[in-house]
Specification:
By secondary structure, the chain is mostly helical. The protein contains 15 helices and 4 strands. Helix 8 runs antiparallel to helix 13.
Length: about 325
């Protein structure tokens, strides 16, 4: 019997954690990004009520991904933290201000406008920082002997700034689709009215990243455009185009649920495209998962804990979304 590849298992666990965070916290960050563009205070109240019961549970996945990365791939952690210290710090501070806004906004009277700003700025900065981190991760880092040797601001580039704005647009898109799915009346109609523009910007960002990434790394270009890989991977951009068209059609036909699931599909395919581009490197351009992995004994010990906690997180998440299913209106006292 062959030995189980613990490194691959841990890569899948961390990939799952990060993807679940991006997908689930993405829509509530998107609600915050759209907050200042809402037509009135009543709409903003309804928007916040759609995510109030679930936002903090969504961030559990970020903790899982970060903790797993530290335990299973300590080299990656030791490279990413000094390389991305400032955008990571900005992201965490933004998430704190955003979390405080949830707790204080509904209790405030004269200072409610201040917590509106905190919610909007926190959501937008957190999303932008995550996009910048993604862009820097795709670019790669200057590493010698397993240690980061670059500068504090090497993450700043035209590409990383573009991916920052692109992720803000993507989060706004899925946030808009969430509002459509969870609301009725004027709030939903307002979300329909801006959904097509958010789709255009998001697809433009996806196209730019898809073209720019192989131009930066010859190995990635070779992977995508050599035969027979070109045929194998062609369904990714093709299905992305189909989902974009389905999203637009769903907006025109005023369907409630399809836009959200199409937006989810766009995120899934973007994540898959990124995985295809970077595999098996965990630090560009040449540090693989197995180069960066911790000792098998450490991986096994930590995996036993994850195998216990992961079902609990999945169960809690599923239960929460089930309890707070249904539409939220301006007159809602609770959730149904």
């Amino acid at each position: 019997m062959e030995t189980i590849d613990l490194t691959l298992i841990w890569a899948l666990v961390i990939a799952l954690g990060l993807f679940m965070y991006v997908l689930m916290d993405g829509f509530d960050l998107g609600v915050g990004i759209l907050f200042p563009y809402a037509p009135d205070e009543e709409t903003r109240d309804t928007m916040m009520n759609t995510v109030a019961p679930v936002w903090d549970g969504n961030e559990t996945w970020l903790v899982l991904g970060g903790a797993g990365l530290l335990g299973a791939f300590p080299m990656v952690y030791s490279i990413l933290l000094p390389a991305l210290y400032l955008p990571v710090l900005i992201m965490l501070v933004a998430l704190i201000f955003r979390g405080v806004a949830f707790e204080f906004r509904f209790k405030a009277k004269d200072s409610k406008w201040l917590w509106d700003i905190s919610f909007t700025v926190g959501s937008t900065l957190a999303a932008f920082s995550q996009g910048v981190i993604l862009g820097a991760f795709i670019q790669g880092f200057e590493v010698e002997n397993g240690k980061y040797v670059g500068g504090m601001f090497d993450w700043v580039s035209a590409f990383s700034i573009m991916t920052g704005f692109g992720l803000v647009a993507g989060y706004a898109l899925i946030g808009c689709a969430w509002i459509i799915m969870k609301t009725l009346g004027d709030v939903r109609e307002w979300a329909y009215s801006i959904a097509d523009r958010l789709l255009y910007v998001t697809i433009l960002a996806v196209v730019i990243v898809s073209i720019w990434t192989p131009l930066m790394h010859e190995a990635i270009a070779q992977r995508w455009f050599s035969m027979p890989n070109f045929v194998y991977f062609a369904p990714v951009p093709l299905i992305t185009a189909v989902l974009a068209l389905a999203f637009y059609r769903a907006i025109v036909q005023r369907t409630d649920y399809l836009p959200f699931f199409c937006a989810m599909g766009l995120f899934i395919l973007s994540y898959l495209g990124l995985a295809i581009s970077l595999w098996p490197n965990v630090i560009q351009p040449d540090i693989t998962l197995w180069d960066a992995a911790s000792a098998p004994e450490s991986q096994l010990f930590l995996l036993l804990g994850v195998l216990f906690t992961l079902p609990i997180i999945l169960g809690y998440t599923t239960w929460t979304y089930w309890v707070f299913r249904g539409k939220v209106t301006k007159d809602s006292v609770g959730y149904h």
